[in-house]
Amino acid sequence: MKKNIEVSVIGAGMWGSTLAALLAKKGYSVRAWEYNRVMAAHLRDNRTHSALPGFKLPAGVQVFTELEKAVVSPDLILMAVDSRHVRALARAINPLLEGKKLPHIVAVSKGIEAGKFLTVCGIMEEEIPRARRRTMILTGPSFAVELAAGAPTKAVLAGLDPREVERTRKLIEGGPLKLEPCSDRLGAELGGSLKNVYAVGSGIIDGLSKAAKNSEAAFLIESASELRRIIKSLGGKNRTAWGLSGMGDLLLTATSAKSRNFRFGREIGQGLAPAEAQKRIRTVVEGFEAIKTARGLCARHGIKTPVIDCIWRIVYKGHNPSSILRAAGFRD
Q: pLDDT category, 209, cuts 50, 70, 90?
């Protein structure tokens, strides 16, 4: 392994910037790509991020708006963009890797693609097929803002090849970030994607005037059971469902106002229409689209999901938010 490790970070949002800083502090040469020219210029000139209080981007991180300048000869690529843009970017990155040693490719993005119902790693496999066994997911209970502030954080690094996972874990792990290796990549990805849906439901309950933490606890148990059933039905492992990337991520995202998905649901629970709730949040609410794709994925495989179905009816069909209590096992 080269002493001078080169890292390409695709997307300099909260997660991309946080990981870029962490890896630069390990002495790596980090090239970050950002689509938004205004944000890229701000990071380049001021070395700060508006969503990360007290954050400082190290001098070892270069910021580009040209993809070919960010992907030169990377040992490691981190995909940290909205999951809706992963396919187009992976397709653009593929020719940039021609004739070069394949890097380790790690997705921080979480989501399920509409139509094909592929996970982010599944999408990248289609666009960069020769890197299949080097394509991994970093997921688990981790708010970027807390990791950036130095909070001890344990997440999961999951891939198909345990040796590649271990090599990549050693590349990334350090400072406040601890990584748990996992061979159940699909199960880990499903946990990271579906928890956003359940976080919306938990937020709805939090926003109901007559609901309280008692109700949320019941809802979380129902959600965790449903999540486990989905993961198992699609070939994932029981241990993954109850581990960091399943139950751990669900507990974090579905109980904290730091989660955009939770806040989005809470606004709906308090009476706002979903479109208005999205405006209040101002940034991307992954759970909004994830509700549709999760429901479609489970319908395709014949998996019964009463909790997801209930959230979908509230968000997309205008059902009364209080109907979420039925998904938690309560009856009129």
A: confident
